[in-house]
Amino acid sequence: LIVALNKMDTANWAEARYNEMVKETSSFIKKVGFNPKTVPFVPISGFNGDNMIDKSDKCPWYKGWHKETATAKVTGFTLLEAIDAIEPPKRATDKPLRLPLQDVYKIGGIGTVPVGRVETGIIKPGMVVTFAPANVTTEVKSVEMHHQQLSEGLPGDNVGFNVKNVSVKDIRRGNVAGDSKNDPPAGAASFKAQVIVFNHPGQISNGYAPVLDCHTAHIACKFAAITDKIVRRTNNPTE
């Protein structure tokens, strides 16, 4: 998380106003689960470009932002430096393969090519994959990204992969591909989920039947039983 305090030019770059906003925002983000010590606060003017890319001379009182990470303390001045200081997430290459299909194409001279983004695990040519819930198993002949052949597809990669002896009618958008030898995905009759309600005109109760969008799947479901209400700040159930 980065907090950019915009329109500082309309407050004449007043240090008191900056400190007030840092105090208020720190209190708010703490309530929703963030540690203010890990968050850089950057006073900027987006319209004039102050402290966006280059350090501004309009706030001599500003000594730069600082944040604590798991390994070190990081400092900087501009919003760009704060963005560059974001630690990239660890890709889940050690988990079983999960690749939700975005679409399935039939390409002349090649065959059936499912496409999607690798969420976890690794996909490689020669791997035997299973598509759930269609329960179709086949071998991956090749993996491509941006028309380039890959030796493997990693989490975050949007890939297309050619499969053997599978028709475009056998699999479809919303299916999930996984390694048939390492915890392959399977269909589920029910599951337990934590749901955040942003805005709803009516009342949500047992039997409520929404349409669920999960990755690329779009399917109707039903709330069989609401077990708890959860306090967002602590993630603990209340009732």
From TrEMBL:
Entry keywords, A to Z: Cytoplasm, Elongation factor, GTP-binding, Nucleotide-binding, Protein biosynthesis
Locations listed in the record: Cytoplasm
Keyword Transcription: no
CDD domains: EF1_alpha_II
InterPro entries the UniProt entry points to: EFTu-like_2, GTP-eEF1A_C, P-loop_NTPase, T_Tr_GTP-bd_dom, TRAFAC_GTPase_members, Transl_B-barrel_sf
Superkingdom in the source lineage: Eukaryota
Keyword Cytoplasm part of the UniProt annotation: yes
Pfam families named in the record: GTP-eEF1A_C (PF22594), GTP_EFTU (PF00009), GTP_EFTU_D2 (PF03144)
Chief location category: cytoplasm
GO molecular function: GTP binding; GTPase activity; translation elongation factor activity
Domain Translation elongation factor EFTu-like: 111-176
Entry protein name: Elongation factor 1-alpha
Organism: Cordyceps sp
Gene assigned in the entry: tef
